[in-house]
Write a structure and sequence with these properties.
By secondary structure, this protein is mostly beta strands. The protein folds into two domains: 108 residues, TM1070-like (Hypothetical Protein Tm1070, Chain: A), CATH 2.60.290; 140 residues, Sandwich (Hypothetical Protein Tm1070, Chain: A), CATH 2.60.290.11. The chain is 3% helix and 56% strand. The longest helix has 4 residues.
């Protein structure tokens, strides 16, 4: 049982795509969260769930040295969510933790899902950086969902364009405004942007500041359109193969963008 402490702030980790909701084709989405302390002292921590249109929910507690805390249905078990919601979970601690998650389809014959890493703010990309999600697909077999998570306390804007194998832009530019510590998702980005059917494509994305410095981290997930198939993860790299710079200071905005894929 987690017990109340003052909110720690030394380390921060975010996971996006946390869900307790129904989906297409009778899918039932749930999320698992695991918090591991591999250090030699207790870490005081706070977990915060945020969803659009809902008040944040905070749970504070302690993770003992060597202890693993895990919830198979974290929104229902830890945050006691009863409505259908999806959003992000931020874990803050006064020491290092290993934060991982898995979002999966729950069925009578088992579960199928995808691993989701906890993202630290220093992994974010800086204002004006252009990164890529590759490869992506939008056709009868696959769809790509793109999620955006802002890792800071300032608003920012993200712009995404899709490109075919020759580098030509397909569809329109997608522009989203992301609230501080907020999370949004575009389901089937190829349909949203009017990009048409593409067997092989990639996305470029950039972050633009609305308030101080902006940072962006991108990761991708592609899903087979059949609900009984696993999504496939795609890490996102910077344009031109350059190494990703570290994020701006804590006063900056950090955004993580991800994509995921089977049609479900």
């Amino acid at each position: 049982m987690l017990r109340a402490y003052l909110r720690p702030t030394d380390r921060s980790y975010l996971t996006a795509g946390m869900a307790r909701t129904s989906g297409a084709n009778d899918t039932e989405w749930r999320s698992q969260l695991a918090v591991l302390n591999v250090g030699d002292r207790t870490v005081e921590a706070t977990a915060t769930f945020r969803a659009a249109g809902a008040d944040p929910i905070e749970i504070t507690g302690a993770v003992a040295a060597g202890q693993l805390l895990a919830w198979d249905d974290v929104l229902g078990e830890l945050f006691e969510v009863t409505d259908e919601l999806a959003g992000s979970i931020q874990v803050d601690g006064d020491g290092p933790l290993v934060v991982t998650a898995r979002t999966y389809n729950q069925s009578d014959v088992g579960t199928l899902g995808q691993f989701l890493p906890g993202i630290a703010p220093e992994q974010a990309m800086a204002t004006g950086q252009t990164g890529v999600l590759s490869p992506l697909a939008g056709n009868q077999q696959f769809r790509t969902n793109v999620g955006y998570i802002n890792l800071s306390d300032h608003s920012c804007e993200v712009r995404v364009t899709l490109h075919d194998t020759s580098g030509v832009q397909v569809g329109s530019e997608r522009v989203r405004s992301i609230d501080p510590s907020g999370w949004k998702q575009d389901n089937d980005i190829f349909a949203v942007t009017g990009a048409g059917s593409q067997d092989h494509a990639y996305a470029r994305r950039s972050a633009h500041q609305q308030l101080p410095d902006v940072g962006l981290r991108v990761g991708g997930r592609q899903r087979d359109r059949r609900p009984d198939h696993d999504p496939t993860g795609h890490p996102v790299g910077p344009r031109g193969g350059r190494s990703v710079p570290r994020a701006m200071g804590w006063d900056g905005v950090r955004l993580s963008v991800g994509a995921r894929g089977p049609r479900a």
